[in-house]
Amino acid sequence: MEKAATAKLLQRHVSRNPRSYASVVILQRNSRSLDNKTLIALYEKLTPGIKALREGEAIKTEIAARKLSVNGATPADFTLKNEVEKAVKLSDYRGKYLLIDFWASWCGPCRASFPHMRELYAQYKDKNFEILSISTDRDKAAWLKAVKEENNPWPQAHDAKSEVSKNTFNVQVLPTLFLLDPKGKIIAQKLEGSELDKKLKELMP
């Protein structure tokens, strides 16, 4: 009900004020509460000059990322650095089921999930399965410290500017998980706890 009310208020304001800077600011700040169809419809109501503003460009980027991060989509290849400054490419994992885990050192729920993920990794690592943890920490030292403390046995990567998390996967909250098939296609996302267990068991009995 709250999301529906928000959408209705935004619809009214943007429709009446498509040339207003306030419209694009309000729309950008509330974009997470809108579904794709509603967000696109409201964005299209804005005038070209308002769309060209920083907030308008942010909405445009989010819309594009949403289209690329739905189930069935194949995310664009990317390259990040791991904890020893070696390149990590998404395409390196083609041919395997890949669980991409977006997290950060300061995220309690992220780190609380690692013990169970380690159990799953031990269970499936020899069944054409890999995990890639991508940190969105801006503080590299904090990330490296957390990587050392957790000592997770799967690959790590650092997305300091959130370019991959935001522009490729439209990550809005942490932790967020995406499961890709061996062809690089997203087959599940936002899996937690028993849902992740169930999906992996289904794919790799």
From TrEMBL:
Domain Thioredoxin per the UniProt entry, residue ranges: 69-205
According to the record, the signal peptide region is none
Q: Give yes or no: UniProt keyword Disulfide bond.
A: yes
Check the record and name the PROSITE patterns matching this protein.
Answer: THIOREDOXIN_1 (PS00194), THIOREDOXIN_2 (PS51352)
Its annotated compartments are:
Cell envelope
Q: What is its main location?
A: other
Tagged with keyword Disulfide bond: yes
InterPro entries named in the record:
AhpC/TSA, Thioredoxin-like_sf, Thioredoxin_CS, Thioredoxin_domain, Thioredoxin_ResA/DsbE_sf
- The name this protein carries in UniProt is TlpA family protein disulfide reductase
Q: Which organism is it from?
A: Chitinophaga oryzae
Lineage here is: Bacteria, Pseudomonadati, Bacteroidota, Chitinophagia, Chitinophagales
